[in-house]
Amino acid sequence: MNTMTLWHISGGGFAALALAALLVGFSKTAVSGANTVSLAVFAAVLPARASTGVLLPVLIAGDVLAVLTYRRHAHWPTLWRLFPAVAAGVVLGTLFLVWADDGIVRTSIGAILLLMAGVTLWRRRRAERAGEADEGDEPDAVTGRPGRAKARSYGVLGGFTTMVANAGGPVMSMYLLSAGFRKLGFLGTSAFFFLIVNLSKVPFSAGLGLIDGRSLLLDAALVVFVVPGALIGKWAVTRINQRLFEQLVIAATIVGGVQLLLH
After folding, report:
1. How many CA atoms lie within 13 A of 25 on its CB side?
2. CB neighbour class for 220 (10 Å; exposed up to 12, middle 13-18, buried from 19)
3. Residues near 173 by Cβ (< 8 Å), separated by ≥ 6?
4. Model confidence pLDDT, tens digit, residues 198-250
5. Are the C-beta atoms of 160 and 96 separated by less than 8 Å?
6. Most CB within 10 Å of its CB: which of 40, 105, 147, 233?
7. What is the dihedral of CA 22, 207, 209, 46, to 10 degrees?
């Protein structure tokens, strides 16, 4: 049976999903957080809960390409600090999905994203008054008690949002920016982070019935569009300076949060 017929998708709907998959690839290698637009497109074309199961393998494909591109720039101390809190967030997100309806999920995630964007903008303005950091891959604010507390809070929020709506990207983007990551360190660290986290979500999503043979059939048709998006992102990121990069990440987070609140 034709995949579009199986999902009752029109030609225009499939084109929208293909464009959203291309944007996933772009976001993974250029502007993290931009895939919140993809999340909204998938939820608009497909049933909202089912869309999260279809989108997850597409995201994993993008994560693999991002790791291959930026693997040398990952900051592993930050990753190890985040993972326990993220695991707790994923468990909380799974429990939340058992009883929450689509409206509650969207409103909760949208509010979190806008809050994180607001906090990050405030912190960036304070940092600008104190002077710009030097270019580099490593952060300047992930050690010490405040850094550990920040990692735990963002980690739980990131795990929760990525489980319930595949929307953890903006939350972690806000954390990495607030921690002082520069462009390549940001992309390398987030690439490994989301590959590991998204792979860990597969059993939970399958257990909830969000991933099955029907969803994987649609994924097989969409994943090919991730590759050109990732290549475009790799080309674009070398032409984006640090300030513009940060502005685009924050803007994508705000757009994603607003979209979730309005739908």
Report:
1. 22
2. exposed
3. 32, 33, 186, 190, 249, 252, 253
4. 999 899 889 988 898 888 999 999 999 999 999 999 998 888 877 787 777 77
5. yes
6. 233
7. -30
Whole-model pTM over 0.70:
yes
Tokens of 14: 């499939």
Residue with tokens 């895939």: 35
Question: How far, in Å, CA of 142 to CA of 144, rounded?
Answer: 7
pLDDT tens-digit map of 185-208? 889 999 999 999 899 989 988 998
Q: Mean pLDDT of all residues in the chain?
A: 81
What would the two tokens of residue 259 be?
């979209």
Q: For the chain, give the number of residues.
A: 263
Please list the alpha-helical segments (H only) found in 71-101.
76-99
Question: Tokens 């969207």, residue?
Answer: 106
Q: Which two tokens stand for residue 110?
A: 């949208």
